[in-house]
């Protein structure tokens, strides 16, 4: 089976996101959400022609990636935000959400229209039956579009000065609240049930430096700053816990994050992983070296045993989470990796999102 997501040039994108929560597959303009419906055989969902006679309107080519992996119910496990912004942004011809049946790859529906106020969507998360889409808005302040995940109908658009959105690029769940990462240097916390502002977390003490990703360990939030640090925030109070930085961590343009039990793993675009104790903030180890074949890593997924690091160069490096040893490098023509930018892990299946660069985007599913 092959699906090809075709861009409408000349449009430049801001990001892509991947989610897993157990029901359908949904592809967005500038983002993609994958939801599981039954066991799948390994296969490559390639770009090429529309599935079953339906044309998927893909409003852009992807220039950056965001990652979210959710559990079979809907719990968010990891999220990585855009790793590189487009050099320029052209207002999109079409802003759409295309929902696919996961088992067949067929189109369920394409969600579009001015009422949704999609504006450079870059990330998303599912919570309590609703889908929250983050809109970077390019020249605007940003917003969230809330949809009913079952029907695709609009619930509301969350926007306004009170939210202090400043180029939002990522989102994660914190209990009943949404935490939106603003690349401008702040976090906006929103009550998911009411859409009201809980608080805006900002200030010099947090030392936000172009934040792009966030993950939660059950107690605290860890925010990735591309400038070379992690900001740890108390999820209950919003207070800064500490800023993790310094030469010992060997941060090299961190762009993604995942939490594996007691450990926080930051992905460095420079070609390494920095593992940190979630409890103390101390360095555990830095995973690097030629054997790993890291090639501009941009995203990470975890299956509870191994780490799967997506390399923009066209591969996935599997690492033993307990020992840090290389397991294997997944690469080769059969996988049809073309500028892979994001990953979601669901059981034994990996879903790798391919930007496609000048061509069309694709999704490669790998059984491990």
Polypeptide structure, described:
The structure is a single chain. This protein has no helices and 32 strands. 0% of the residues lie in helices and 46% in strands. The strands form nine sheets. A four-stranded antiparallel β-sheet has the order 3-2-8-9, with no helix packed on it. The chain has a four-stranded antiparallel β-sheet with strand order 4-32-31-30, with no helix packed on it. A four-stranded antiparallel β-sheet has the order 10-11-12-13, with no helix packed on it. The chain is mainly beta and 368 residues long. It has strands at residues 6-7, 25-28, 31-34, 44-45, 57-58, 67-70, 76-80, 96-100, 107-112, 121-127, 130-135, 143-148, 154-158, 168-174, 177-182, 186-191, 197-201, 211-216, 220-225, 229-234, 240-244, 254-260, 263-268, 272-277, 283-287, 297-302, 306-311, 315-320, 326-330, 340-346, 349-354, 362-367. The chain is globular and about 50 Å long.
What descriptive keywords fit this protein?
single chain, 368 residues, mainly beta, 4-stranded antiparallel beta sheet, 32 strands
For this structure, the quaternary state is single chain
Beta-strand portion reads over 45%
- Summed up, the helix count is 0
Radius of gyration: 19 Å
> Largest sheet, order of strands side by side?
3-2-8-9
DSSP E strands, number: 32
Principal-axes shape call: globular
- Major β-sheet profile: 4 strands, antiparallel
* N- to C-terminal distance: 19 Å
What would you call the structural class?
mainly beta
Mean pLDDT: 75
